[in-house]
Design brief:
heterodimer, A: about 475 residues, mainly alpha, two-stranded antiparallel ribbon, B: about 250 residues, Four Helix Bundle (Hemerythrin (Met), subunit A), 2 domains, about 85% helix, about 0% strand
Chain lengths: ~475, ~250
């Protein structure tokens, strides 16, 4: 494995981060050189030096192996998280080392959980940087860099095998470079549309851009302490519900639908399941909240219930209400949707609808096999027959996902955190959702957790973002063939 | 890029990194110094204004006491002087203070205090001075002095909060150097790795290959990356060997 090549590509990713840090410093400058200006400027310099340094020595045009490509992707994620915490650490305030790391990882993995008790006390430049980490993380730091870089040749395919969820790749019918371009186009387009609509709905430009970054990346960082509840606007909530739901769909499908192609959202079995399950659960939660008297009218119960469900099911993690005070039925549904999350090929984390639907079909097939032992039963998803290895891998993923959650809950509980908080915090971290229940509810934050628990949560965020195997394989790379 | 430029860029980057982190620390330290100085000045000014106000109230109190006990109107000018001093001190505090709401209770107490005195002396009830002084006046006097003392305490607590925030400035002044040093160490490690990979390793490879060729006639073969001076040196050696072979 050639470390010089790895350093070159990881360096390019750092340079991309430096560009967004510079933009954030520009915002600080426009806000009368607020206290985040120098921390951001120094972060730009540190990140640029680190990122540009390998470019001086390593020449472009080198072909990379799959092993190197893999390390580049994982390395880029980890190094971005380290570079991303520099502005927080340099600014100080509530950002200790553990808190800065937590906020950075939470940003890049698009989790959106925060350690900040007073978000509004943070200067605008730093708030913009916080949202930028979501946006960069959402598109996939490496994937983004690859679109920008013109000199990669065959290497793109190698990198994409790690960066994209294996399930997502099936739906793409394009060359890899084309895939990246589609993703980027959809991503930028949705961000722009969301920003404009939020502005029209009453937000100022700064809040609109930041919330659009968070929404399309399915992140969840807000510029307000009360998150979306601060705006108390039904229009803003409706816009966010629509864009969060769209951001949870496969980006290739969104593009196909917009361009009138056959392979679109309406024909996708997974997309149908995703949207219908959200709609059904929203109604159930709404009725439950109304019936229990938490909200006086069915309309208000549906409004808050739908927003909270969509924000958690799409792994965004905004808040318009304190869902920890809701009925047990609503809470259990929110937890289940935090486990399932959205579709593969979106910026969402979690088990993903594709795997959940696949597991239902596997169970159905197994039951049918028991009734008809000689029958040859094929499992289809989106009318495509799924390979046995692929199905096994998906099932293994679900088992491993739940095992890791169980193991993590035991460890965090042993560290003195209550069961509800520890379980929901890990579900929210691994699914890249953000808020959980208990101490880490939708109107609370992670600041009260011990530092070691915060580190565990960040590990789970990375595991979730890199689809578990992605991160685990890094430690086994020595034995790769 | 040639070897000389690469090494130069490497060292310049390191130097720039440390220089800029030093500048940021310096800027933040200057900010910290200014903020500390301003904090101390505000604290001293608050104390001074509160003292002036209390002295002025005390002057008025003494004059009114003399007037009440002795029924001597000559103390009227002393009372008016005290009232003027108080108004002056309050006006100074109003100009210097950032949050005017902190002075609201002082203003309100002052209004009541003045109203009690003005009402009494305008009613011409000269023989009721002592009961008025004990029953009515003293209440408004204590109210005013308590308001001034509360203002002093509130102003000092606000300054205490600001002092706590200064801790952040101290953090911002010291952390850049620590982080920049950490990054510099990282850059040095990467720099060393690249120098070894692109310069030291190829040179030792060429030396070894040349030695093998000269001693044992093993063909001169060196694989290396890059197209810098070392690469050209290798190519020239290969040409030289070819020429030597031809001339043999």
């Amino acid at each position: 494995m050639r470390f010089n090549i790895i350093l070159r590509y990881v360096g390019l990713t750092l340079l991309l981060n430096a560009v967004f840090m510079l933009l954030s410093a520009g915002i600080s400058l426009m806000n009368n050189v607020d206290t985040a200006f120098y921390p951001l400027l120094l972060s730009v310099i540190l990140t640029t030096v680190l990122g540009a340094f390998p470019l001086i020595f390593v020449e472009k045009g080198e072909q990379i192996t799959s092993k190197e490509g893999y390390v580049i992707v994982i390395g880029a994620w980890l190094v971005s998280c380290f570079a991303g915490m520099l502005p927080y650490l340099l600014w100080g305030g509530e950002f200790s080392l553990a808190n800065a790391w937590f906020e950075s990882v939470s940003g890049y993995t698009t989790t959106g959980s925060t350690i900040l008790n007073d978000v509004e006390a943070v200067p605008r430049g730093l708030l913009f940087w916080r949202s930028s980490t979501h946006w960069l993380g959402g598109v996939g730091v490496v994937m983004f860099a690859l679109v920008v870089l013109p000199s990669l040749g065959r290497t793109k395919l190698t990198l994409s095998s790690v960066e994209l969820s294996p399930l997502a790749k099936d739906n793409f019918r394009y060359r890899t470079q084309k895939t990246y371009q589609i993703l980027l186009m959809v991503y930028v387009g949705l961000t722009a549309a969301c920003t404009v609509l939020l502005k029209i709905a009453g937000m100022n430009w700064f809040d609109a851009v930041n919330h659009a970054f968070s929404t399309i990346a399915t992140g969840g960082f807000s510029t307000k302490n009360q998150s979306i509840a601060y705006f108390d606007s039904a229009w803003i909530e409706v816009i966010l519900i629509v864009f969060m739901a769209i951001a949870g769909l496969h980006f290739g499908l969104i593009f196909a639908t917009l361009t009138g192609k056959k392979n679109n959202i309406f024909r996708s079995e997974v997309a149908r399941y995703y949207l219908l399950s959200i709609a059904a659960a929203s109604v159930v939660i709404g009725v439950s909240l109304w019936h229990s008297g938490i909200y006086p009218t069915l309309v208000s119960a549906l409004r808050y219930g739908t927003f909270q469900l969509v924000t958690m099911a799409t792994t965004t993690g905004f808040a318009t209400a304190d869902s920890t005070l809701w009925t047990p039925l609503a809470i259990i549904l929110l937890i289940l949707f935090s486990l399932q999350c959205a579709c593969a090929g979106s910026t969402a984390g979690g088990i993903k609808c594709d795997r959940v639907l696949l597991s239902v079909k596997v169970i159905k097939a197994r039951l049918l096999q028991q009734q008809h032992p000689n029958a040859i039963i094929r499992i289809k998803l989106n009318n495509i027959v799924q390979d046995n290895d692929f199905v096994n891998l998906a099932m293994l993923f679900i088992v491993l996902y739940l095992l890791l959650l169980g193991l993590g809950t035991i460890v965090v509980t042993a560290l003195g955190v209550d069961l509800m908080t520890s379980f929901s915090a890990l579900v929210a971290s691994m699914g890249n959702v953000g808020p959980g229940f208990g101490q880490v509810g939708s109107m609370d934050n992670y600041s009260g957790l011990p530092a070691v628990v915060k580190y565990i949560c960040t590990l789970y965020m990375l595991l979730g973002r890199l689809e578990i195997f992605g991160l685990i394989q890094l430690f086994l790379i020595k034995w790769w063939r | 890029m040639g070897i000389r430029k690469k090494i130069l860029v490497g060292f310049v980057s390191l130097g720039f990194l440390l220089f800029f982190s030093g500048i940021v620390s310096l800027v933040e330290l200057t900010r910290l110094g200014r903020a500390t100085q301003s904090l101390l000045e505000t604290s001293a000014s608050n104390m001074e204004q509160a003292k002036k106000m209390l002295d002025a109230v005390q002057e008025q109190n003494t004059a009114l006491l003399q007037m009440a006990i002795l029924g001597n109107k000559q103390y009227d000018s002393l009372y008016l002087a005290g009232r003027n001093s108080f108004d002056k001190a309050l006006a100074e505090a109003t100009v210097t203070i950032r949050d005017l709401s902190e002075l609201d209770s002082v203003y309100a107490a002052r209004e009541r205090y003045n109203a009690v005195i003005d009402h009494h002396f305008s009613s011409q009830a000269t023989e009721d001075h002592i009961p008025w002084f004990i029953d009515t006046y003293k209440t408004s006097y204590y109210e005013l002095t308590t308001a001034i003392k509360n203002y002093m305490i509130d102003a000092q607590s606000t300054l205490g909060n600001k002092a706590a925030r200064l801790e952040n400035n101290a953090h911002r002044a010291t952390v850049p150097s620590v982080i920049a040093l950490g990054v510099a160490i990282l850059v040095i490690i990467i720099f060393f790795y690249f120098i070894d990979l692109y310069f030291v390793h190829p040179v030792t490879g060429i030396t070894q290959a040349l030695q093998n060729y000269l001693n044992q006639k093993i063909p001169f073969k060196v694989t290396m990356e890059g197209k810098d001076e070392v690469f050209r040196l290798k190519e020239l050696i290969e040409k030289l060997i070819m020429l030597a072979k031809k001339s043999e």
